[in-house]
Predict the 3D structure of the following.
Amino acid sequence: QLQLQESGPGLVKPSETLSLTCTASGGSISSSGAYLNWIRQPPGKGLEWIGSAFYSGNTYYNPSLKGRVTISVDTSKNQFSLKMRSVTAADTAVYYCARGGGIAVAHQWGQGTLVTVSS
Amino acid sequence: EIVLTQSPGTLSMSPGERATLFCRASETVSNNFLAWYQQRPGQAPRLLIYGASTRATGIPDRVSGSGSGTDFTLTISRLEPEDFAVYYCLQYGRSPSTFGQGTKLDIK
């Protein structure tokens, strides 16, 4: 069974770039039809879709993040990554990577990683 | 973007009862691309339903989804202790995909 694990710094300074990687084990992330998603959840709040990459390479982003986000896929490492530029305290959240059959529709999730934006 | 409004905000029920959760969209959800997630404290969300009514793998048949257009329902019959959690609806028919604010199902 495919398992996902997020990794990256837990603390990022304001105005810097948040970088996270999701590594898959027990299967391939790039099987036909798979969407690779990043979703976040501020402490005590609800879920927000950040963006997705389709297995073919197309990417889709939430316009509310104003072009600050890039998602990339490295099939050779069975990983996909998130970069978010110019972060502020409002970007403090638990960040989840997830894989499934649709944008934000995910059967498999990582455990989530808390990223705090603070100086 | 499509705004999803879930009701009630909190639902207090007893084990063995039937729970009904609602999700209303500000516009028609294309192709009934509406999903439901369950989130227990400290855990990642778990997909329950997609396509408004299709159960995800491993979800018991006492969990069901229905609805179309702008009004959708998640029903859990015969509540078990593990069902007490927060539930989110998600529309993925039009970009950006958006979530509802959640319904907390707690034990009465």
Notes: Chain B is about 0% helix and 50% strand.
